[in-house]
Design a protein that fits this description.
It contains 13 helices and twelve strands. By secondary structure, the chain is of the alpha+beta class. Helix 1 runs antiparallel to helix 2, helix 6 packs antiparallel against helix 8 and helix 8 packs across helix 11. The longest helix is centred in the middle third of the chain and has 32 residues. It starts with a helix and ends with a strand.
Amino acid sequence: LTICAQVLCNYLNSAERLGTEVPWPDLRYIFGEIMYGGHITDFWDRRVCNTYLATIILPELLSNLTLAPPAFKSPDASKMEYMHYQKFIEERFPPEQPQLFSLHPNAEIGFLTTQGDSIFKTIQSISGSNIGAGSLDLSSSQPLITRYSEELPSDLDMVDFRSKVKEEEYTPYIITSFQESDRVNALLQEVRNSLAELELGISGQLNVTESMESLSESLQLNRVNEAWQNLAYPSLKSLSAWFADLISRVAVLGAWAGGRELLRSIWISGLFNPMAFLTAVMQVTARENSLPLDYMTNRSRFLNTRDPSEIGGLPANGVHIHGLFMEGASWEDGKGDDEGYLADSKMKELHPEMPVANIYSVHIEKMEWIHMYHCPVFMTAQRGATFVVQVNVRMDADDDDEGHWVLAGAGLLMSDD
């Protein structure tokens, strides 16, 4: 930032000395792609940075540019000296609030909620660590072991599933369902075995190991054990919610893989690797139309129902998916067969559920982005490394500025954590 300020100062002084225009596009590129943005490794974070620059680094910045609603404007440079700017910042700068950054007040609610959770988890962790491994009461986890062991579903019978499919019947969808089932079986076996070992350790039939102590602590603190998490999927849920989610995933995968047919709507959030399924959509379309897979892309169209049971059957093209949530915006349902569109967030609705979506593949030359928002999809609200894919999300017919939604932090999540 210091170097950016020096570069800006040099450009402004040079323009004044030479009597030329300030090269604002050059400054935006230098700041957004080199000096500052060049250090931002995440593409979506860099997009936010460049959108801020495109909104602020303008000629109007020196002549009452509106920086934040309703009436916070930049001072007129022709009427102020350096000391006046200092006084302006100290006396007239508004208090920090989400609206200053083009965010909805919900953003502060989400931030404070996350911060509070983090503080309580830290307190809980510190309190637990004071007990010491030697005096840890393993027997306190016995009721939890019994409960989770009874609720844990059986492994999916992959031998039976595969025996019913002939070699020529394998499709990308069937392969994906089997891959997902194999992964959930590996997780189920790890959960089952580790719970059984801990139970034997408590009864004295096995020596208590560090991994047993860690599992016992996780059970008592309602936290997903690290060994389970390594075989699972990104999640911010507590153990009880995570376990209920796991049971639902097993049920869906059992119906999909066991039925050997694509479900009317796939719970996309219930997959370990949702991108593999979305790639399968492109593979099927490419094979049916003799198109090169490298030139295929997925397109989305959101329906006007959130209940998958209301879907009459498979779509004419592609697949139906559900289980997405919007963050940083809300969704206005369409009328009749018209598709809905993005709308500003509603107060205290942090993650509104999205309708069922029809995902189908098209050749990249036929992909249109008119009145569409390039929307990132993440597995959790932590975003970052949980990024899955970019989809098109419709904006209002009168809305052709993606920047508003970029700065609002609009994105789709696969989990309402």
